[in-house]
Amino acid sequence: MTAEPSGRVYQNRPEIGFIADINPVLPFNIRKIVPAVDSGMLGRLEEIRLRALRPLALGLDTGDVFINESGQVVEDPQKAYLVTREDVERCLGLVSGSSIYALEEEIKNGFITIPGGHRVGITGKTVLESGRVKTVKYFSGINIRISREVIGSARPLLPRIIDREGGTIRHTMIFSPPRCGKTTVLRDAIRMISDGLPELGLPGQAVGLVDERSEIAGCYCGIPQRNVGLRTDVLDGCPKAEGMTMLLRSMGPSVIATDEIGGQDDVRALEEVLNAGVKVIFTVHGSSLEELAARPALNYLFRLGAVECFVQLGRDKRAGVVKGIFDAKNILKAGAIRCIN
Amino acid sequence: MYKLIGAVVLVAAGGAAGMLVARDYARRPVEIRSIITALQMLETEIIYSATPLGEAMDRVASATDGIVSGLFREASHSLLVGEGATAGEAWEKALVNFYRSSSLTVTDSAILKNLGRALGRSGREDQEKHLKLACEQLKRELSRAEEAAAKNTRMWNYLGFCGALAAVIILY
Questions:
Q1: Cβ A98–B51 below 8 Å, yes or no?
Q2: ipTM
């Protein structure tokens, strides 16, 4: 696997504007602690973890730290602020607007998206019905994942995925393990494709975005809170497979974008889009092409041979580092023979 | 002359006091009925529209009138302005103010307080059960309130005047 020479760590701005989105969902005690954290650290904040009866933890790009009542990092977890059961319940109440019943589907999926596109993961005791998760009760853990818009993060890969002759993009798959910036890079790529990049010979394209988890466009009441481009139509909260077909039939997109493809249904819908002359750009969880090929649904996708460009992301000091870009020419060199056999 | 004025004042005061007690008896069933209707509207908003609680309460407040509207309006306001209050806290705070100006009894208030503890904290099915239970309990209180009103409203209306008249006669 060769490293992409143009791949580099994108420069994240030390933005702390997310505090305005996050603070209203934090319980009183923690609402005072988080803004008191050093602003440099807040700029690198990726997660806020509330686990009942355990220390308050912040997930930074360099790893987890425990925080005390004054917002200072403490080495000894015993000295950190101890999250209470009430903190967790109150946080969930605020996240859901005291309306758990209105978010049954989201709770079944294990996360709720709040204004600003930040994802709040939840854990607790699951209630099953016919072997499937019906709901979650006795909530015990909350993970608030900060969604950051990093303008320019997709710039290193754009020249490689643009089809200059056709004035469009190539069918592209972006893959990486979790927390490597797939969604951030995809969002920025969508923005650039939608707005157009005349210097690279790419006119603005009508992009149809299926945002099942409301993470890419961060829609609130249907309106994107993130910049996803001038020509992007967003189908918010819609299952990917259905959404892609709906967009194809209704909005006449030149490019369809979606996040976290994995199931058989997703791949079948993707195949339909690929055969309809519409370009696709999507993300997949996985650390290598070999790993992806071991998944039956994705293996089928590889066998179709339709995806023209595979972008591998990784994590150096920051998320969103382009570790490699493969196409039909160099995929064999990359040792990913299993993928296409 | 003074005796006559005193007697008139006494009869008026006695009559007014009796009428106030009678009014409480007469108002209680009206208020309970109005709360039941409001809770049924809330149930519809929650079960069929999955409307977030703050908004659902605001809609109920707009569709009802009198002090019951105030109860839902105040609870909805606390939830919508993002004060950080849970649904239970917002409801309880609004209930305290509502209870002061209503003719409800401690039992009626306790039913509503219990409902507040469950509001918005579970799935639709569970919310439906809690709302239905509260409505059933209130309906039972309603029939008691209607009986009490039938018995006591007229009695207190007369008792105030008659008691005051009796006092006037004794004092004369």
A1: no
A2: 0.80
